[in-house]
Predict the structure.
Amino acid sequence: MAHLHDDEIKKMEEIANQVRQDIISMLVEAKSGHSAGPLGMADIFTAMYFHILRHDPKNPDWPERDRLILSNGHIVPVRYAVMARAGYFPLEELKTLRKFGSRLQGHPEREKLPGVESTSGPLGSGLSQAAGIALAALMDKKNFRVYCLMSDGEHDAGNIWEAAMFASKYKLHNLTGVIDRNNIQIDGYTEDIMPLESLRAKYESFGWHVIEVDGHNVSQFIEAVEEAKAIFEKPTVIIAHTIPGKGVNFMEFNFEWHGKPPKPDEAKIALEQLRTLGGKIKSEHQ
Amino acid sequence: MPLNPKAKLNPDLLDKAKIKMAPIRDGYGEGLVKLGEEDPRVVVLCADLTESTRSLPFKQKFPERFIQMGVAEQNMATVASGLANYGKIPFISSYAVFSPGRNYEQIRTTCALNNVPVKIAGAHAGISVGPDGATHQALDDVAIMRVMPRMTVLVPCDAIEARKATIAAGKIPGPVYIRFGREKSPLFTTDETPFDIGKAHIFWDGIAGKKLDLAIVASSQLVWNALLAASELEKEGISVRVINNPSVKPIDKEILIAAAKDAGAMVTVEEHQVAGGMGSAVAEVLAKNYSVPIEFIGVQDRFGESGEAYELIEAFGMGVKNILEAAKKVIKRK
């Protein structure tokens, strides 16, 4: 793979930090929505849109584009923020999240906002849609790749395992799944609600190539995606270990922040922490 | 015999000795092959029921465009969503109790709300599935598909119409549900009989020179029962119009309102729960535009049970005798 320069990594980390601030601002304005998942996936989404995907923000229906299917639609604020930062639509539109008449629906809708690729929210059905696109690409000898971002909690759903069997049967090597392994879901910790481990062994036994990474280490994630491209005859899943609520100390690791937005005073503290990287640098606004 | 000449029906349709029989699902198989020849985007998915859903001829002719899903209807709907999202035209084949039964939410979110052209083929619909019993007799599939925005719902009356409905489904942009029966049923239409999505057609139109007493609106193989009933009523001097209504959604409002105005009473006939089905769709149109008394032939809020197909149609109140009773009752209510 092409060597990633440190300054490229640094730039993506800065964008991801900005995206986390966008997410907090969007959620406090919307007064509803999910906090933990979007914050936890800011690094991966940034790496996707600013390094990995072949895409054109000015031509979102470009037929040769890579497809990114978001299965757990409730974390869509992170996608919206990254798409806006990548030039799909104006940053000001982020404030319309979840409001009447907005293109930024609470859960994403394909027809409302060009570039979101699929309508999602009900859990467990993204991987099979991604597999359908990947199979169509192989049938038509297209070279684009298909990525499916999933939560860990949605692996409770049988539809995902049906898709895992299917992708393996049809040797969908152009499909890469990414699991946000943050160990929380609405009602609590994943291993208390319905144990998922060993996710690695499960996917391997279904015929997938499995890579585990630190989901906040951009270069590690990009290396894993490159490895997936080199695997033939089978699909790859990247288990990305992430911290839910990453970057805001009172949200991190706390499942209670799965499905609620910050209040204005909480948002102020959260933004302060993100701007100063948890007090490591001096805020420009002080 | 007051058959509507424009409907170009089989002239032997009342002759039980002469009329040929075929399962309605056969038309699906023929339609798929025809579509496959015309359009390389057409792909067929099946959930381990390739022969009985009549997906087999397509598989044999276009093996590279046939996708075997195994017993996984939720995955079938969502993989089809992805294929359609890319630009394919997928037909998903199973029994109606499983698809759109088991995979209802996947169809709602990933096909209809997502607005991609997945075509859902529900075989073995209705009580006439027979000996398999209640678990396999879909009696609510039209209702759950009819309430879904963007979904077109088609209920063909014989294998010939099923072929036309399948081809028509493949040529419109959105999601479509088509339902098929299992048992052999009369082939009473012909290749020339008109079929258009959004249109119903008059198959039988009253006694010459006499004002209409009644309109019967029917879908599925029971259209034939409605024609038999009309022929009996004619003998008693009762003038009847029979309308074949395969396009449950979008529904042909004009033909229904005109029939209500011309006849002043109506019987709807379907092999489905009366709640939420084709008859309900007709009633919604008439309640708003031109109210007349209606009797509803169909299953009355019960599950099915094992038995022979035609035995069950009689036992569950959808036989010719039941249509005749409903006709007389509704005329009295005028």
Observations:
- Chain B has two domains: 5-16+194-332, 21-186.
